[in-house]
């Protein structure tokens, strides 16, 4: 398994970050205040490097985030920047290190109510940082509402105040930032929606904590970036033939629902499968024959003939679910598909057909190498009482089904029990919110599995290819367009 950490794309929770900071302080014989100075100095450097000298208002809370802000304010003031700051609490309530920063820097806070916010060019949000776990009320809520409505650009230290750093949840209200500077690693809440929308531009800054301090924490939560997929696609060798490049079998749908499986078939061949076969019922074969050209159509009249298609030993992976229909007929086909241990993508109707009957699904698929690709609604059909944030749900499902689990959405997540890793897709491919998009993804993942790529890697890489294709597609894109865009994305991964 490749080292996903080497690109510093790890995400951390509040508790992990605090534990790492504590360990770093202890092992390097420094104090909390010394690390605060590192963070404050790093933030000031970013401000100086990215913004012209201008009037800056620092709004500082009583905790460590406020201390970072005070140190930054002092540095900017020394360099001739017109700086003002306010405290959201009275000085005697400040944390020990923040109080120390206030005393050392000899800065005089101003009253927020006395300030004309629109007279400032920048506002620095140093109110809460990553520690917030309650709904914001009182003076802090009032301040955040006022600075949001001022339209003055807001720059957050570590995370926009009001965004839960572990879940991305908005704790009642949150600052709407144009720029966020976070330290050492991005926090989960920096990436998960809805909090992601509050970041603006996100900058991760090193404050001296070595990468080794981050390596032991499980599960490994990482963002889905291009660098981790370089050279991970199994491209054809010079002596390749179509069967050596992988045989993907797509299970077609009934006459009224052929579009989904056709999209999956086209995507599978674009993604690198040397041969794609679509198994279809006799009454729908004309639709497939008339619309698919480089894919092979195999029709069946009954389950016996369906089984004979599945008996081909050359099959490397199966995609089942897109446009298949829900109910007993699908369950019957699933039983035949998994009579033998398979590598398969289970999507859409092949998931929904097992609503309130997950034990049967697990029994049927036992021993097979499965990638599940549900959206939130399909997930809840399998686990109707499942609670928690998206990451917690994804982990639970992957563990329960002993599989790779792709939870589709703006933050598509890829989880796997065996690898103890979670891949989080960075939002941005908004054009993927269109009918058929998920069918294309199923085809991509199925093809990668057919070529011999390990399942978790197939899922993460497939999500990346799919997402990047969606970004390129832009306004007006439909699912069919993704298939034509894919080659340009694949070339970048050579």
Unreliable runs? 1-6
General form: elongated
Helix content: 25-40%
CATH superfamily of the largest domain: Ribokinase
Kindly identify the CATH topology of the largest domain. UDP-N-acetylmuramoyl-L-alanine:D-glutamate ligase
Supply the CATH class of the largest domain.
Answer: Alpha Beta
| First and last CA, distance | 19 Å
> Widest sheet: strand order?
9-18-17-16-15-14-13-10-11-12
The tally of beta strands, per DSSP, is 18
Total number of helical segments?
Answer: 17
List keywords for this structure.
UDP-N-acetylmuramoyl-L-alanine:D-glutamate ligase, 6-stranded parallel sheet, Rossmann fold, 10-stranded mixed sheet, alpha/beta, 494 residues
Element layout with pairings:
Elements: E1 11-12, H1 14-27, H2 32-50, E2 56-60, H3 64-78, E3 83-87, H4 96-105, E4 122-126, H5 138-150, E5 154-157, E6 179-183, E7 186-187, H6 188-191, E8 201-205, E9 220-223, E10 247-251, H7 259-270, E11 275-281, H8 285-291, E12 296-300, H9 303-310, E13 317-320, H10 328-337, E14 343-346, H11 349-352, H12 358-365, E15 369-372, H13 376-382, H14 390-401, E16 404-407, E17 413-416, E18 421-424, H15 437-450, H16 455-473, H17 479-492
Q: What features would you describe in this structure?
A:
- This protein is of the alpha/beta class and 494 residues long.
- It folds into 2 domains: 4-217, YjeF N-terminal domain (Rossmann fold), CATH 3.40.50; 227-492, UDP-N-acetylmuramoyl-L-alanine:D-glutamate ligase (3-Layer(aba) Sandwich), CATH 3.40.1190.20.
- It has helices at residues 14-27, 32-50, 64-78, 96-105, 138-150, 188-191, 259-270, 285-291, 303-310, 328-337, 349-352, 358-365, 376-382, 390-401, 437-450, 455-473, 479-492; strands at residues 11-12, 56-60, 83-87, 122-126, 154-157, 179-183, 186-187, 201-205, 220-223, 247-251, 275-281, 296-300, 317-320, 343-346, 369-372, 404-407, 413-416, 421-424.
- The strands form 3 sheets. A 10-stranded mixed beta sheet has the order 9-18-17-16-15-14-13-10-11-12, sandwiched between helices.
- Helix 7 (259-270) crosses helix 15 (437-450) and helix 7 runs parallel beside helix 17 (479-492).
- The protein is elongated, with a radius of gyration of 26 Å.
- The model is unreliable at 1-6 (pLDDT under 50).
């Amino acid at each position: 398994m490749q080292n996903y950490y080497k690109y510093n794309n790890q995400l951390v929770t509040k508790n992990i970050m605090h534990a790492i900071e504590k360990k770093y302080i202890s092992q390097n014989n420094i104090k909390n205040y010394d690390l605060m100075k590192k963070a404050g100095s790093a933030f000031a450097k970013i401000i100086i490097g990215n913004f012209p000298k201008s009037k800056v208002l620092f709004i500082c809370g009583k905790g460590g985030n406020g201390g970072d802000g005070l140190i930054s304010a002092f540095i900017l003031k020394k360099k001739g920047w017109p700086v003002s700051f306010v405290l959201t609490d009275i000085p005697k309530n400040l944390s020990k290190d923040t109080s120390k920063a206030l005393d050392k820097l000899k800065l005089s806070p101003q009253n927020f109510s006395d300030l004309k916010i629109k007279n400032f060019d920048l506002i620095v949000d140093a109110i809460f940082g990553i520690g917030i776990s309650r709904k914001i009320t009182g003076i802090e809520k009032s301040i955040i509402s006022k600075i949001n409505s001022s339209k003055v650009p807001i720059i957050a230290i570590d995370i926009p105040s009001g965004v839960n750093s572990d879940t991305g949840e908005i704790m009642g209200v949150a600052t709407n930032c144009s720029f966020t500077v976070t330290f050492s690693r991005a926090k989960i809440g920096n990436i998960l929606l809805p909090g992601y929308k509050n970041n603006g531009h996100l900058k991760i800054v090193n404050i001296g904590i070595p990468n080794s301090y981050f390596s032991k924490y499980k599960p490994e939560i990482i963002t889905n970036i291009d660098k981790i997929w370089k050279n991970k696609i199994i491209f054809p060798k010079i002596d390749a033939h179509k069967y050596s490049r992988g045989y993907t079998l797509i299970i077609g749908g009934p006459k009224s629902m052929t579009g989904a499986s056709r999209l999956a078939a086209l995507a599978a061949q674009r993604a690198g499968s040397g041969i794609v076969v679509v198994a279809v019922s006799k009454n729908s074969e004309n639709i497939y024959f008339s619309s698919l050209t480089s894919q092979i159509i195999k029709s069946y009249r009954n389950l016996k003939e369906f089984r004979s298609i599945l008996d081909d030993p050359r099959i490397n992976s199966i995609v089942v679910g897109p446009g298949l229909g829900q109910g007993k007929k699908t369950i019957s086909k699933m039983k035949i598909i998994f009579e033998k241990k398979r590598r398969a993508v289970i999507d859409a109707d092949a998931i929904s057909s097992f609503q309130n009957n997950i034990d049967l699904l697990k029994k049927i698929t036992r021993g097979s190498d499965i990638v599940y690709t549900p959206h939130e609604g399909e997930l809840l059909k399998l686990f109707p009482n499942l609670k928690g944030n998206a990451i917690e749900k994804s982990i639970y499902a992957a563990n329960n089904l002993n599989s790779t689990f792709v939870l589709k959405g703006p933050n598509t997540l890829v989880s796997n029990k065996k690898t103890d890793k979670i891949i989080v897709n960075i939002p941005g491919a908004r054009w993927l919110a269109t009918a058929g998009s998920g069918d294309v993804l199923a085809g991509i993942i199925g093809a990668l599995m057919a070529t011999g790529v390990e399942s978790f890697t197939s899922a993460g890489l497939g999500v990346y290819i799919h997402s990047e294709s969606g970004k390129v597609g832009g306004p007006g894109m439909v699912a069919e367009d993704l298939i034509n865009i894919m080659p340009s994305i694949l070339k970048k991964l050579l």
